[in-house]
Amino acid sequence: MQQFGKYQKLSPLAHDAVQWRAGFWGDLHALCRDTVLPSMRNALNDDNNGAHFSNFYLAAGLRQGERIGTHWSDGDCYKWMEAMSHMYGATQDQAILDELDSLIEVIAQAQQANGYISTNIQLSAELQPWHNLRWHELYNMGHLLTAATVHHRITGQRNFLQVAINLGDHLCETFVPCPPELAHFGFNPSNTMGAVDLYRATGDERYLRLAQTFVDMRGSQPGGGDLNQTLVALREETRAVGHAVTAGYLYCGATDVVAETGDQELLAGLQRIWEDAIHRKMYITGGTSAQHHGASQRPEFGGAATEVHEAWGHEYSLPNATAYNETCANIANAMWNWRLLNLSGAAKYSDIVELVLYNSMLSSMSLDGLNFCYTNPLRWYGAEHELLSQDRYQRWYTLFCYCCPPNTARTIALLHNWVYSQSDEGLWIHLYGSNSVNTSLADGSAFALTQQTDYPWDDVVRITIDQAPDNPVALRLRIPGWTSEAALRCNGERLALPLSPGSYAAVERVWQAGDTLELHLPMRPRLIKAHPKAEEIRNHIAVMRGPLVYCLEGVDLPDDASILDVYAPDDMGLRAEKTDQLGGVTILRGRALRVAESDNGALYQEAGGEQVEPLDITLIPYYAWNNRGVNEMTVWLPRRY
Questions:
Q1: Cα(91)–Cα(88) distance, rounded to whole angstroms?
Q2: Average pLDDT of 416-437?
């Protein structure tokens, strides 16, 4: 069956078309294979963890004992299984397939005869299906649908897919009639994406109708709220509001519906939300949730404020130390922009995908792949930091809310599928990293190339053609929005093509094996300022190099200095230096100012009299912070003219 939308401009390549080589993402993929996924398997069998495999065995009647974990435990286990399916596709490791088959057999036995499966309800004498959206049934079920269809696509087997079909039939019976009492049902709605995935895997139109129903029910009845985006019908919405994970998953599912139906009214609503989300509410790292806890004020609906948590903030409200930026919300931002990219072919979406991947997604995992964080703030006060919900001083191995680690793992495991797309206009290159691709183009002709690069540390991407047809083929290379100095050479000769930032440059010719393209993306350090309405970071600067956001970590300062002492002049003299630190990152060295201020404990003091002296500083990639013990960190530095 089809694996992409009827109304998409771009389509993905086959799951096995791309193979990573050594390099930034190739090394991370190997880490995911060898360390992250095996360690995560152990965590999912650890009784201290909030997500646990044992619940499936209990529901199947294969074990005795008490249920462990959260209401959303099942969904987090399915995400790990999805990651393992992607890893099987890359490695063809029979041990992975055997382990998945064993788990699928248990899940099939745990499923009820009517197709229902959510072990938190099944193993409770008090809880009944479809009574409380916070019980996360649709979250669990949506991740099952996606994991099962990925498994089917990669392995060709139907054992997991049949579980998904049984579940899909139950969901159709329950929701397609649109019962009013379920109009606002569902939290973290992975179910819409899952329903479209099931439609694509089976071709059964009922599952697409189910996905449309999930979208249409939002805001269709009085009594909804912003927390789970049910106050306003999605086609009428103008803002990104509420819980940032439920929002991101909803927008992803709705975009999938657009890709299959061409619903322009729904697309217009999503585009309005995107403008608000990206241009007024997104962090420089691609993070999306400013608020741990807060209120959503909607004056256009009478001014009533409703409680929200883990949520988008108000326009231009981007606090640093209290930023929530849940890893799952950041990844959902990338997932949504990936879908919009394939719908439109617009590079502004692939720029956001790249931003999230290198910053607020990757910052969630320790460099050794063993420990994680839930929140991703932009300033940290070390051991004196006031912890809010889900904050921790150091990364953890297990946690009550374990949704983020398997989300990170599956993103790394599937990322080779995001590097390229194809269309009648040629082969599109969205992300840069050392890899090889062997695919069939839209006309059926074989095409193969190899990328060689040390991106994002180095600014040269070398592409070698390995196989090409006798007719012209266009390669469409993304020119990132962060560069204004790109250059492109073919077989050593500079091409006179428009290389506009935030666009795709098309190189069309009859290719020969051995032809080369060299894309130069100069990576000078850039000082970034925020919109003047962003009060928390007004008169501050952040530093980026290429797609990477940099930060200052306290361990790199003198023992008697704090991040609060450091001010940034406009001329910091920043220079890049490749090191062996932190897994071999490129650091930035430069000169800032140390402003010594008396701290008498007073909230307010008379200005003046501060001692100013130069201070040598070292900046590291933001994703690499919190790997050297508990210490301070900041992305934004106050600017001193």
A1: 5
A2: 97
